[in-house]
Design a protein that fits this description.
36% of the residues lie in helices and 32% in strands. It has 3 helices and 7 strands; from the N terminus they run E-E-E-E-E-E-E-H-H-H.
Amino acid sequence: MAYTNVNVISSCKYLFIKGKSYSGATSATLKITPLHAQGATVDYTLTYSSTGTGQIMVNIPDLPFSGGVYEIDIIENATSVAKKLVMIHCDIDCCLVKLTNELLDCECDCAKCASSLAKAEKIYLLLHAANTAIDLFNTATSSNSGYALDAANKYKKAKELCDASCGCNC
């Protein structure tokens, strides 16, 4: 049974992609495209071993953006055999940490604390919903671009809420 798993590892330094050939090919081209913003597609080669499995570590700094929703198109023998989505959100996680620290420092139930909590809740819910859309895309039997668009839009909105005052881009 063919598969491809994509994980963000080592504090958002790498995308770890592991897979088994879908068509019995000896290698695959991975076309990694940002969906959350205009950016260049980057290509990598995934070489399969004699057992048909392979893995590759992609440096996240080599991607067009250090965060966002990316589509990975797996191409074997010049044919797209599968597509996977991944979201890199360490920039937004940084924002959530800063907001959480602000909430821990609150000594009262004041308006400032309430607005920080509301902002953190919105950002967290957007990330969670984007991850759900990504899971639905990645487990569907056929590609559904609606899930991809939904995930990218939710990431963009969460990023928008994490402005410079929130501690993002740390």
